[in-house]
Amino acid sequence: MLLGVNIDHIAVLREARKINDPDPLQAIGIAARAGADQITIHLREDRRHIHDEDVKKIIENSPLPVNLECSVNPDIIEIVAELKPNRATIVPENREEVTTEGGLSMDDPNFSNLDKAVHYLKAREIETSLFIDPTKEAVRGAKTIGVEWIEFHTGSYANIYAMLYSNLSKTHHSIKELEIERSKLKQMLNKSLQILEESAQYADDFGLKIAAGHGLNYQNVKAITAIKEISELNIGQSIIARSVFDGLENAIKEMGRLIK
Fold first, then answer.
1. Looking at residues 11-25, what average pLDDT do you find?
2. CATH superfamily of 2-259
3. By CB atoms within 10 Å of each CB, which of 55, 72, 112, 185 scores lowest?
4. What average pLDDT does the structure give for the chain?
5. With DSSP H G I counted as helix, E B as strand and the rest as coil, what are the percentages for the chain, rounded to 5?
6. At residue 81, does pLDDT exceed 90?
7. What's the whole-model pTM score?
8. How far is CA 222 from CA 35, 140, 144, 234, in A?
9. Burial of 92 (0-12, 13-18, 19+ CB in 10 A)
10. Kind and range of the H or E element at 212?
């Protein structure tokens, strides 16, 4: 299983003080030395963390493949086409969200130009992926559009796991709709894993390459690694958070050990 390290949160720290430190570019060599297989970054429309110049420098200097997450906004797609990352993963964006809240909805009129964007990027020899919820309907939609990859949104699984096995429910970040009996949370967790497994098998039958990500950390990743059809995990916040105490190289190595 491959590890893509998302370094957006290094840019979050930089933007918190509006200075030039820390520089996400400095993470690239460390990630490569630590055994990461890919660098993942997200160029959001509001540029809240990664900026255009970051993307350009990272793509030009990274010894690792670069997976650039982006919206379907035509202006953003044009930037992606010009900078030519190894892969473009199209994700939904909501200006009010803290982080990506779910997968692409193929029926959403906001994504009516999704097919056009995918073919535009593929014509420029950029591998394409869609960030989707683990449903058979979404898998069929991705296959119809013609992407090489899909990435399953694991946020639901991660949220349930955190409410069940961490102290999240005792903090001000508790997820209100999941403040329920532990027995029900366990049932929900098992169901979410079953859905991921079945959707991965379904996508594999279609010949799609499968990645997964969102909310994965050192505690909850083990069960995801058991889904053999998933060949790549993209993990960011938990690695950057661990690096505050252990250093980035050690944080990446530990995650790599867990998934490999």
1. 96
2. Aldolase class I (3.20.20.70)
3. 112
4. 94
5. 50, 15, 35
6. yes
7. 0.94
8. 18, 27, 31, 14
9. buried
10. strand 209-213
Active-site residue among 42, 49, 93, 232?
A: 42
| 227: phi then psi, degrees, rounded to nearest 5 | -85, 100
Residue that is written with structure tokens 């366990």 in the block = 186
> Is 69 in the active site?
yes
Helix or strand (DSSP H, E) at 201: helix 182-205
Q: How many angstroms from the chain centroid is the CA of residue 28?
A: 17
Position 105 scores a pLDDT of 74
How far apart (Å, rounded) are the C-alpha atoms in residues 111 and 107?
8
Between helix 248-259 and helix 26-34 the angle, nearest 10°, is 40
Asked whether 148 and 128 are in contact (CB, 8 A), the reply is yes
3-class secondary structure, 215: coil
Strand 209-213 and strand 87-90: pairing? Answer: unpaired
Residues sharing a CB contact under 8 Å with residue 105, sequence separation 6 or more, in sequence order? 92, 111
The residue written with tokens 């073919």 in the block is 119
pLDDT at residue 36 greater than cutoff 60: yes
Query: What are the distances in angstroms from CA 145 to CA 65, 98, 154, 174?
Result: 23, 28, 22, 37
* Assigned token pair, 69: 């997450």
Phi, psi of 40 (to 5 degrees): -115, 135
From the candidates 69, 93, 197, 232, which is the catalytic residue?
A: 69
Q: Please determine, for residue 150, whether its predicted confidence score (pLDDT) is greater than 90.
A: yes
